[in-house]
Design a protein that fits this description.
With 262 residues, this protein is of the alpha/beta class. It has a single domain (9-192, 228-255), classed as NAD(P)-binding Rossmann-like Domain (Rossmann fold, 3-Layer(aba) Sandwich), CATH 3.40.50.720. It has helices at residues 19-29, 41-55, 69-83, 107-134, 147-150, 156-176, 194-207, 211-220, 230-241, and strands at residues 9-13, 33-38, 59-63, 88-91, 138-143, 181-188, 252-255. A 7-stranded parallel β-sheet has the order 3-2-1-4-5-6-7, sandwiched between helices. Strand 1, helix 1 and strand 2 form a beta-alpha-beta unit. Helix 1 (19-29) runs parallel beside helix 2, helix 1 (19-29) packs across helix 9 (230-241) and helix 4 (107-134) runs parallel beside helix 6.
């Protein structure tokens, strides 16, 4: 059994800072050539150059609006045309949407989250699965969220669309397993980085508290008494895509330091 991704090709869709960046680095360090895709050209090229320099792998960047079905098709087709194959896909991109009570929901905004978190992710997964089937298999990892289980107030737009994505991903795993394609979900907990810091600062502003103190208190509620790092999520994705996870499919793997256990 191969212990690395040498000779494999993977796409990281939604390759921004944090989990996207860490996943691209982790895949390349394990031997894969990687295509990074996101909407903004300048940071995407910077990430491409960073990963290439750090790993020596062939790294390509493709500016892609993942809400556009044609651009999703182009991303997969161009990857196969340029690299000759596709072995792995990690769907990191997400659409949070505004926080709102369900009785006050902006349903047009809700539809945007459905299109992005559910339709776009599943369409890209299906396109990738078809290509992977041509070479005997591969691995797809879709990024979920702790919110789908914690079910916080005013987060239904995000949590419900992500929960639907998890259910559909498991269904896809059943459908494509016969062709050797595995589909799994990695659901992060509170993940270190600028967005997490900003979230606690916003909470502190509403309550009159201190953002750093709130963040520290939240970490103490996890079984391991800490938040996770983007690298923790990336390592889980690489494991599931590689042959090390060859008999794991149709599962949701929480990587949340025990923030939620059940």
């Amino acid at each position: 059994m191969s212990r690395n991704l040498e000779g494999k090709v993977a796409i990281v869709a939604g390759a921004g800072p944090g989990i996207g960046r860490s996943t691209a680095l982790a895949l390349a360090r394990d031997g894969a050539d990687v295509v990074v895709a996101a909407r903004r050209e300048a940071p995407l090229r910077a990430l491409r150059d960073e990963v290439a320099e750090a790993t020596g792998r062939r790294i390509s960047s493709m500016v892609t609006d993942l809400s556009d079905p044609t651009q999703r098709e182009t991303l997969v087709a161009s990857t196969v045309a340029d690299f000759g194959r596709l072995d792995g896909l990690v769907n990191v991109a997400t659409h949070n949407g505004p926080r709102a009570l369900l009785v006050e929901m902006d349903w047009e905004a809700y539809r945007e989250s459905v299109e992005f978190n559910l339709v776009a992710t599943l369409h890209l997964s299906g396109l990738a699965a078809q290509q992977m089937a041509e070479i005997g298999g591969g691995g797809i990892v879709n990024i979920g969220t702790l919110n789908s289980t914690s079910l916080l107030p005013k987060m239904a737009q995000y949590s419900s669309t992500k929960a639907a994505m998890v259910s559909a991903s498991k269904t896809l795993a059943r459908e494509v397993g016969g062709s050797g394609v595995r589909v799994n979900v990695v659901s992060p907990g509170f993940t270190e980085g600028t967005p997490l810091d900003a979230m606690f600062e916003q909470m502190a502003a509403r309550s009159g508290g201190d953002g750093k103190e709130l963040k520290a208190r939240a970490a103490k509620t996890a079984a391991l008494r800490r938040h996770v790092a983007p690298e923790d999520i990336a390592d889980a994705c690489v494991f599931l895509i590689s042959d090390r996870g060859r008999n794991i499919t149709g599962v949701e793997l929480p990587v949340n330091a025990g923030q939620w256990i059940g």
